Amino acid sequence: MTDGNGDRPGIGRSTDRGAQLRRWLRPGIGIKxxxxxxxxxxxxxxxSGAIVLRSMFRDAATAxxxxxxxxxxxxQFLPPEARLAVIFLVGVVVVGYGWWRLLKVLIEPYQVRxxxxxxxxxxxxxxxxxxxxxxxxxxxxxxxLLRGLKELTSNITAxxxxxDDGGSSGKLRTGMGLPPMGDIRNCIEALADVEPAMTxxxxxxxxxxxxxxxxxxxxxxxxxxxxxxxxxxxxxAALTDITGDFEEAVRQSNRVLAVRGNVxxxxxxPITLHAELEDGSTIDGQSHIARARGIxxxxxxxxxxxxxxxxxxxxxxxDMIVIGPGSLYTSLLPPLLVPGIREALAQTSAPRIFVCxxxxxxxxxxxxxxxxxxxxxxxxxxxxxxxxxxxxGNLTARAPSNYPAAPVVVDLPISTAGAxxxxxxxxxDDANAHRHDSRKLAATILELYDERVVQRRAxxxxx
Length: 463
Fold this sequence. Notes:
The two termini are 39 Å apart. The chain has helices at 17-23, 32-62, 68-73, 80-107, 117-128, 139-149, 167-176, 182-191, 196-203, 220-223, 231-243, 246-256, 286-289, 309-316, 328-336, 341-347, 370-379, 438-450, and strands at 133-137, 156-160, 262-265, 272-277, 282-284, 295-301, 320-323, 352-355, 388-392, 421-425, 428-429, 432-436. The chain has 463 residues and is an alpha/beta fold. Helix 6 (139-149) packs parallel to helix 8 and helix 6 (139-149) crosses helix 18. It folds into two domains: 17-124, no CATH class; 132-450, 3-Layer(aba) Sandwich (Rossmann fold), CATH 3.40.50.10680. The radius of gyration is 30 Å and the shape is elongated.
């Protein structure tokens, strides 16, 4: 996607004043139409002034002697054609200079960033016209996708899992009974339109005291109750306590941090994830399942958990739904298994695309090919709510050394009757073959939407 000058948003912006002035006149920014209205108003004022001057000349023509001051002000010493040209050019210069100074006075108080305000305004209007994208998942995969999408559209809703039970989220979940907010915080960070300092603050994690503190005789746990907690998690926890509702706290976080779009928990209460392994044993808890091998299927409790109304509304109003990338069993499946989410996906008219991971994950998807990823979705009753599968087609990216993972092998034919469409694109990070590139992935998704490559299949039967 490019701007009116052929540049990608955020790339190659000039700080030249002339270039900035031209940008105010670009299509889509909403300035020219109002300048035209102002111009028409000025023309009306000029016409009324001409009528007054004409009456004055008529009166002066019948009077004697002639008025030299009036003749000088109206350039009577010049031929009529030259007089018209001079007055017109002077008027253009005066009006242009006046509007330029007025705009400068108006925008200077808001020019808090190095980027010109006209560019910010243009990009905001451009993103406001973008498609309504709903992204479902969690973990680093979802936040990575959101960082790329927010540069192309501001109509984004992230429907995020609440199954995490480790780290700071796990402590708050156990100690305060709150849904885990680590994945939600990461998504808010990804979509927040704030200064870099605020992003670092949200991500800041309180650390235990330095060496030597243990010998002081003071209880570390009592003096550092926030150790291990991310500041962003504590902010959401505080807003939950203030509002009395976790979903409302997340909505308030979206507003406070100027999120482009919305971050929505899939449910307003915590989910517990359970996995059944190939050997018949079971594992409880997302943090334990992430390291497990040989997972047969997963389920969530409580079984009657209610999905967030905002999540269902977002799915119903979406232009495109993106599932993934992310950890298959611990990030993608938990929100999809919440009662009502699969039904909403089956009923929506929007195309639904599954973004397969570019690499396997140690533990839960070790050795998985593309067909095994799709088989896992089918086992959980989700095969018929996927219209297309996006896979990476660039196998030349640099693979990190000593990392026990491998690229996901695409072992399916290009097209199979009744199966999701298989779309191959370069979406990998060139510097790391085990993760997506946020810009490449977001641009690909928008291209698929603009070109209508992903077509909605026949409505699935709701099970």
